[in-house]
Amino acid sequence: MRELMGIAYFAICAAIAVWATRRTKTADDFFVAGRGVGLVPFAIAAMASTLSGFAFIGGPGLVYGIGMTAVFIILPAGVTNTLGAWVLGTRMHRLGRARGLLTVPDALAARYRSPAAQGLSAVAILAGVIGYVATNALALGVVIDALFATGLGPGIWIGTAVTLAYSVSGGILAGIYTDVFQGVVMAVASTAVFLVALDAGGGLPAITRTIEAADPALLGPWGTRGAMTALSFFFVFAVGSLGQPQIAHKYYMLRDLARLKWYPVLMTIAMLLAQLLFVGVGVAVKALVVRGEMAPLASPDDATPQFLLRFVPVVLSALVFAGVAAAIMSTVNSFLSIGAAALTHDLPRALGREPIRQLTIGRLWTVVIAVLAALLAQQAGLLVAFLGILGYGLFASTLVPALAIGLNWTGATREGALSSIATGLALTVGLEWLVWSKRLTVPQGITVTGLTLVASLLVFLWVSWLTRGRAAAQLDDEVRRILEDG
């Protein structure tokens, strides 16, 4: 059954790719879906590309291990969707239409009249993209191995090939509508497994009583890691979300800006449905282990797989595995498009060259990035682990100040933007490497991403204040009107 579900899923992706390929004629089609995406597919695609496999595998494992502390990772969802639409949505969309922008670094170049800002942000984005694609290629290999018993290595290459089949041919247009299908699968699977989890645990009151008797802190307001860690998670995932290019980039694609006001509602509902499994499986498995109905987990990440194998009907289990594959492939497609755009469009412009043959070259770079990520994924937890940790922090520390604040403050300067991007890039790579290699230990409750984001924000504000006399001359009148009108 799982094999048939996997084959059916890949067949649907192939059909969407064929349809999208016929509509992909220009670089605009390939990188920004022809700027013609409706609100509902826009919101579902944004949800699908945000969550990846973490909501299905890593999330329940975190809830199992640290309880309510992990919920503060997803708690900002109700805030960030509104904040993103308010802070970025309208300005990104209007800048994109006025200047024909294709990428997030394009927006920085337009805002600060700075090819250097475009190039430096493209380097940061490319580093994060490779990390995200490599970790998700590894996760996809695990899922395909579970479905077809291929082995991890062949599973990575099969998953990469399937993702490339629609990413290369249809670009982001194929990705958007594959994301819609995948997002629906994720929401349905998550809701169904949540209900099964509650039933298997004897209902929410029974689950709560069982866990509180064994480990009261787990379901306490801050979880087992305490208030500092919980609030650090909330800060990083609330503010840091404003720098995630796979979301910011999609604002260019929305067909009707007037409908953006409904985006926060749709996005929040979609994410809440998709995250039911995140919490439900985590607490249900914890209760089952405490009661002796499941063996203690060798690893918290085993929570979802073990629960699916023991308590979930085969058909639903197959749907969840397809949902995991859906989530992963959604994320991979988004990042492949962003990475290809950085190499095809942003870096040439930063070096003073006008990009040529962007559709063809973009497709070639998509293949190169995917193959490189698949090769890195073969390392299975060595370099890949470091790159995966690096991605979110890089996006947050390098893009949040220059992009999110810069599009809302006419006093921001080119020097402030370049300084903050360079600070975020250097500190994130340096500190994450030191922590990952165990050469540095940060205090409990403090995250490297939180530290680098705060440092980047402070540098941006300080340098912009020092160079405030140059702000007016660095801002085109057209861009100023867009920033001031919102």
Model description:
The chain has 486 residues and is mostly helical. It is 75% helix and 0% strand. The protein contains 21 helices and no strands. The chain has helices at residues 2-23, 27-32, 39-51, 58-66, 71-74, 77-99, 104-112, 115-148, 152-200, 204-214, 226-239, 245-248, 263-274, 276-290, 303-311, 314-350, 358-377, 383-405, 414-436, 448-466, 477-485. Helix 3 packs across helix 13 (263-274), helix 8 (115-148) runs antiparallel to helix 16 and helix 9 (152-200) crosses helix 17 (358-377). The longest helix has 49 residues, at 152-200. The chain is globular. The relative contact order is 0.18.
What topology emerges from the helices and strands here?
Elements (H helix, E strand, L loop, with lengths): L1 H22 L3 H6 L6 H13 L6 H9 L4 H4 L2 H23 L4 H9 L2 H34 L3 H49 L3 H11 L11 H14 L5 H4 L14 H12 L1 H15 L12 H9 L2 H37 L7 H20 L5 H23 L8 H23 L11 H19 L10 H9 L1
How many E strands?
Answer: 0
Q: Regarding CATH, which class?
A: Mainly Alpha
Low-confidence stretches: none
CATH homology group? Sodium/glucose cotransporter
- Overall mean pLDDT stands at 84
Number of domains: 1
**Major sheet summary line:** none
CATH fold name, please?
Sodium/glucose cotransporter
Can you tell me the CATH architecture?
Answer: Up-down Bundle
Radius of gyration: 22 Å
Taken from the alpha-carbon principal axes, the silhouette is: globular
What string gives the helices and strands in order?
Answer: HHHHHHHHHHHHHHHHHHHHH
Number of helices: 21
Instruction: Report, as a whole number of angstroms, the end-to-end distance.
Output: 51 Å
